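Session log. Operator J.P. requested a structure for one protein chain; no other inputs attached. Running the standard single-chain path with token output.
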Amino acid sequence: MLIMLEFIYLGCKITNENNMEAEILQRISNANECFFALQKTFKSKYLCIKTKLHCYRTIVQSVLCYGSNTWTLTKRSETVFYAFENKILRKIFGPVLENG
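Structure written below.
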């Protein structure tokens, strides 16, 4: 009898334990590399925030969520996703002034 421990389907690693933590961290790492490759675009003063957000949603989020239909998310995974998204949005919008 042959038992598969893991295999790659559509670019996503699927394990027999259905643990997606490693895959999710790899996707975040790939999206982070994509963001840093486009960092000049996001820092440009000639582009409006709406255009930067559009670039983020179409390019970086596509890399981040590729193959997500096979994932089983936990609360920890959701927290990691929200932290990554907040990091990127802070870089796009810039610093926030709390008192003015």
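Operator note: The chain has a mean pLDDT of 84.
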